Amino acid sequence: MSALSPKSPNWLDWYANPSEPTLRLPPGTVDTHCHVFGPQAEFPFAPERKYTPCDGGKDELFALRDHLGIARNVIVQATCHGADNSAMVDAVRAADGRARGIATVRPDIGAAELLELDAAGVRGVRFNFVRRLVDTSPEDDLRTIARKVAPLGWHIVLYFESADLPELEDFFAELPTPLVVDHMGRPDVTQPVDGPEFTRFLRFVDANDVWVKVSCPERLSVSGPPALNGERHAYTDVVPFARRVVEEFPDRVLWGTDWPHPNLTAHMPDDGLLVDHVAHIAVTDEQRHKLLVANPMGLYWPGEDF
Ligand code: 0GY
């Protein structure tokens, strides 16, 4: 076997002992955005990857799920695994119906392979436009993929920087599947929540019935985590953005941990605190039930009881 690659310089590992959340998640809560990394010895990382992470496999993911009071996961293919979906599919299969997957595929993927992914629990593909993570994909290739996955009833998960939305918006609007946007389209939270950039994003969401993950406050925040003084209200500068989306689109918002939190540079979040953050962005029981249970169940486990 070839030698294992060392982690990227200054890589931050996931938080080993997350706190007990103060917020009790409603039964049936779905974490719609998490990843698995390897383990590398079993599932090697892709040669074209832009980073080499620490291991973060299915056993650790399921342990976190149980610790936080989460019922189900949607495991999104991480770019460090390229278009080799084996680690993600292995995790989804091992979850025994309690996980779905989002794959990365190439345009030449065949019908049999797509059906195999579908049978394993994959329900969508991710199109990634974040330049530090992937080489650019020609829009024609993405259209081909979209055409192939649409008949399966899958959706497309879009990951982009907010500054790139104006040039991508028309392409997104033409896609033939439901759309889900990661991390609220990565707003610049130093801008006003009613400023032109976020207003444009909200218009795009409204016009195209887009689903929005109000995830990753730790990635978007400039104010950062709380001081280590027992305060559990973190990432306060992101709250107005997430709350606005939850209030305007209560039936199309989704939440996720983003564990194992790739490519963070300043700090690694305590996943217990990320759960407590939910109470600040979805402030009523009804909002939280939609965000955490009803919406993701409708999208990923339609027809199943919560
Ligand atoms: C995220 C965000 C990032 C990375 C990936 O697949 C990935 O590598 O998604 C990032 O670096 O912003 O959603 O985990």
Summarize the structure.
With 306 residues, the protein is α/β, with parallel strands linked by helices.
Question: Could you describe the 3D structure shown?
Answer:
It is a single chain. This protein is an alpha/beta fold and 306 residues long. Helix content is 34%, strand content 11%. It has an eight-stranded parallel β-sheet with strand order 1-2-3-4-5-6-7-8. The radius of gyration is 18 Å and the shape is globular. The mean pLDDT is 96. The site of (1E,3Z)-4-hydroxybuta-1,3-diene-1,2,4-tricarboxylic acid (0GY) has 10 residues, from loops. The site of (1E,3Z)-4-hydroxybuta-1,3-diene-1,2,4-tricarboxylic acid has 10 residues, from loops.
CATH architecture: Alpha-Beta Barrel
CATH class descriptor:
Alpha Beta
Strand content: 5-15%
N-end to C-end Cα span:
44 Å
What small molecules does this complex bind?
(1E,3Z)-4-hydroxybuta-1,3-diene-1,2,4-tricarboxylic acid
List its traits:
eight-stranded parallel sheet; binds (1E,3Z)-4-hydroxybuta-1,3-diene-1,2,4-tricarboxylic acid; 8 strands; single chain; 10 helices; alpha/beta; TIM Barrel; globular; 306 residues
Secondary structure elements and pairings:
Layout: E1 30-34, H1 58-68, E2 72-76, H2 86-94, E3 99-103, H3 111-120, E4 122-128, H4 139-149, E5 155-159, H5 165-174, E6 179-181, H6 196-207, E7 211-213, H7 217-220, H8 239-248, E8 253-254, H9 271-281, H10 285-300
Parallel strand pairs: 1-2, 2-3, 3-4, 4-5, 5-6, 6-7, 7-8
The structure holds (1E,3Z)-4-hydroxybuta-1,3-diene-1,2,4-tricarboxylic acid (0GY).
(1E,3Z)-4-hydroxybuta-1,3-diene-1,2,4-tricarboxylic acid (0GY) binds at residues 35, 78-80, 130, 133, 182, 258, 262-263.
